[in-house]
Every structure is written in C-alpha cells, then in structure tokens.
Design goal:
By secondary structure, the chain is of the alpha+beta class. The protein is built from three helices and nine strands; from the N terminus they run βααββββββββα. The two termini are about 35 Å apart.
C-alpha cells in the first residue's frame, strides 16, 4: 500500500521561491547579463552547478511511503530505505519536538530528511515533506517522523501490518 508524501504549503513556497527562483533563476539571469555585457557565451554554463544541486536535493527528498511485506519503504529517487516491521515498536500521531542540534540532513527545500538530535526527544530521523500532519514510528534507535498524505489511514494500515507481523503473546509451547 503506497502513501504519497506531498509538500505542504510552506514547503511549496520555500521550494518554489527559494529553491527554483533564487537557486536557479538568479544564476540564470546573472549568466544572461554576463553574456550581454561580455559577449562570451561560455557564461551560460554558470547556472548548471546550481541546477545540479537542486536536482540532487530533490532526488534525496521523500516522495512517499510504501507498506511492503517486510517493512516500510521510504521512497525517494535515490537511497531508498526500508524500516523493518520488527524494528518498529509503536506508531502514533502524538506531536513531539523534532529537529534540533547535530542536524545532518537537509531542511526546508523539498522537505526535511536525515538524522537529528534534540535534548527533549533524543535521536530521531526525519523523512517529511509536510510539517502539519506527522506520523511517528517508535523504533529501537529513536523515533522516525513521516508525513504521508493521509496520516490516519497510514496509521490504521500500519497497525494492521504490525499485528500481522507479530505473533500473539504468549504463544503456546509444543
């Protein structure tokens, strides 16, 4: 079962205005100005590194979450991750403090993803594109924050998968 990760309103503004407008538009206009001023067409390659950086950041941003047979697949263009069901100890929508010091991942442009540490919540991993409706997975290594497009349906489907994956306790001995 697949749940897309759509950008929230704030994230769309940040990605559109800052990412594309400033990150690519400004270097492009600058290169056109340089060509006009100098007559040298080699200045047209100026925006290419910025466009490459946007392409790389977009490729690492979460695009969805799939409940597979053995775990939750964090979908993105590159470096997909699988969180096995046996590593998940719980799932809920109770808000928690996220982000903080020692942020290793990217923030803001196409969502937030990567490990974080916060003194109130400890180590956690963000794979979110929307900061409004989050789902929190409790794992042995801290919690993982996700932002599926339909968080309530995601939680229901995940609870069903977790119930299937775990045998009833206690199990009868033979």
């Amino acid at each position: 079962m697949h749940f897309p990760a759509t950008l929230g309103r704030r994230q769309r503004l940040v990605a559109g205005v800052l990412g594309i407008g400033v990150g690519f538009g400004a270097p492009f206009l600058g290169s056109v100005g340089l060509v006009a001023a100098t007559g040298d067409p080699s200045a047209l390659i100026l925006p290419l590194p910025f466009l490459g950086a946007l392409w790389a950041i977009q490729g690492l941003a979460p695009s969805g979450y799939t409940l597979e047979e053995h775990g939750i697949r964090l979908e993105r263009r590159w470096l997909r991750r699988l969180i096995p069901y046996d590593h998940i100890t719980g799932c809920d929508r109770r808000p928690r403090p996220i982000g903080g010091l020692l942020a290793v991942g990217f923030n803001g442009l196409f969502g937030s993803h990567g490990p974080r540490w916060n003194p109130r919540s400890g180590w956690h991993y963000l794979a979110i594109t929307n900061t409004d409706d989050l789902v929190y997975l409790e794992t042995r290594g801290g919690f993982v924050a996700l932002s599926p497009s339909d968080p309530d349906q995601f939680v229901r489907a995940l609870h069903a998968r977790l119930a299937e994956a775990r045998p009833a306790w206690p199990t009868p001995s033979s």
